[in-house]
UniProtKB/TrEMBL annotation:
Membrane topology: Multi-pass membrane protein
UniProt domain HAMP: residue ranges: 138-190
Alphabetical list of PANTHER family matching this protein: SENSOR PROTEIN CREC, SENSOR PROTEIN RSTB
EC number: 2.7.13.3
Name the record gives this protein: histidine kinase
Organism ancestry: Bacteria, Pseudomonadati, Pseudomonadota, Betaproteobacteria, Burkholderiales
Protein source organism: Hydrogenophaga intermedia
UniProt entry keywords in alphabetical sequence: ATP-binding, Cell membrane, Kinase, Membrane, Nucleotide-binding, Phosphoprotein, Transferase, Transmembrane, Transmembrane helix
Family annotation (CDD domains): HAMP, HATPase, HisKA
GO cellular component, one term: plasma membrane
Coiled-coil region list: none
Length: 414
């Protein structure tokens, strides 16, 4: 296997780092073990020599007494013998050829052969291995962290995110393939935006011509019902195009880019609610303690939220035997400071929404079972409401209205 392959494969580098660490520890432990065995053997040899006997040339014993051995590093054992005249004699016993080290400096210090010294040396070796392996591991994990942050930015909506490519290992290959995929996705989304813009223009042009032709047909009472039906279908198509375009713009825009949908501003929600209630002939109820109801966001999108909720309430509140004007929009403020929240509630007197379907009604193009197409609506109104509210860090939910009907509650940071 070539050296270039070892430099390119991430798992091989990690494997080599582990093998090197284990090898160093094994060599150190083996060397210390050998030194400990050698010292133990020498001490056993010294303990065998219990007594030193000193004689002269005539065979007379000059000294015959137990001797104390002292180990001289690098030389051998020195024995102290007490002579019969009470004088001292030192006898040197060099290391045997088998036990004598070829290089006295290669022998381990005595303190290393103790349990405490052995533990200290292992700790120092482990620390050295850890410090040596840290740059390798950190370099690998830092590149993985950079890859993770880039993917998170791209997943959050920043489609222009690209990763830097360094080296030729698996991480570099993954970053390169991510860049290719991100480029393709961004290109597809840009093409989708252009397609929607062109389609909106091409679809609205024939709708305008149909409206003009319908106006030129005349007011023959015999065809009044047909003209009314055609006009209703034209309005529904126009509304469908408008809501599809807005939904696509919200889906394709970057949530982290404040300029994606235009600049944000301080929006007078009370003023918007008054205008939309007047347009829909709905009642407006403002809590006494509400004061100025101002939120930060896009006025055009917040107006769409109020309009869709009011139109939905009037559409499904019909046929209940009650006046259509009994749709009510309520405004209130809860909390204060950073915990301040603006609450918008829209009530109707319709049949209500079953509990198991209160989440599904916010899905695109979903209609309640039994809903007639003649009631109007294209199934995108509530989906747009949830998308816009979530873009403003708010929530929307559907619940029962006391006394019957449905209540949609929107909560926005105030």
């Amino acid at each position: 296997m070539s050296l270039s392959l070892f430099g390119q494969r991430l798992y091989l580098r990690i494997w080599l780092a582990v093998v090197a660490a284990v090898t160093v520890l094994t060599l150190v432990v083996g060397w210390l073990w050998q030194q400990a065995l050698e010292r133990d053997r020498e001490e056993r040899e010294a303990r065998v020599m219990r007594t030193i006997i000193v004689e002269n040339t005539a065979g007379d014993v000059l000294g015959d007494a137990p001797a104390r051995a002292e180990r001289i590093p690098g030389e051998g054992w020195r024995f102290e013998v007490i002579m019969k005249d009470s004088s001292k004699l030192y006898v040197m016993l060099p290391f045997s050829n088998r036990g004598a080290p070829t290089n006295p400096g290669s022998r381990a210090p005595a303190w290393l052969l103790t349990p405490a010294g052995f533990a200290w040396l292992l700790g120092l070796v482990a620390l050295a291995v850890a410090l040596g392996a840290y740059p390798i591991v950190r370099r690998l994990t830092k590149r993985l962290e950079t890859l993770q942050k880039g993917v998170e930015r791209w997943g959050a909506g920043d489609l222009s995110t690209r990763l830097s490519v360094h080296g030729q290992d698996e991480v570099a290959f993954l970053a390169e393939r991510f860049n290719v995929a991100a480029e393709r996705v961004q290109t597809l989304l840009q093409s989708h935006k252009r397609l929607l813009a062109n389609a909106s223009h091409e679809l609205r042009s024939p709708l305008a011509r149909i409206r003009m032709g319908l106006a030129l047909v005349g007011n023959d009472p015999a065809h009044q019902a047909q003209r009314t039906e055609i006009a209703r279908n034209i309005d529904e198509l126009d509304q469908l195009i408008d809501e599809i375009l807005l939904a696509s713009r919200l889906d394709l825009s970057d949530p982290s880019d404040p300029a994606a949908l235009g600049p944000e501003e301080e929006v007078d929600l009370l003023g918007l609610a008054a205008e939309e209630c007047a347009r829909a002939e709905a009642e407006l109820e403002v809590a006494p303690q509400a004061g100025a109801v101002v939120v930060h966001g896009h006025a055009r999108l917040l107006r769409r939220v109020l309009r869709n909720l009011l139109e939905n309430a009037r559409r499904y509140g019909r046929g209940t035997g009650k006046a259509d004007a009994e749709v009510r929009l309520s405004l209130s403020v809860q909390g204060s400071g950073h915990a301040r929240r603006v609450v918008v509630s829209v009530d109707d007197h319709g049949p209500g929404v079953p509990a198991e379907l209160r989440e599904r009604i916010f899905e695109p193009f979903y209609r309640l079972p039994g809903a007639s197409e003649r009631e109007g609506g294209v199934g995108l109104g509530l989906s747009l409401v949830r998308t816009i509210v979530e873009r403003h860090q708010g929530t929307v939910r559907c619940e029962d209205r006391p006394g019957g009907g449905a209540r949609f509650v929107v909560t926005l940071p105030g």
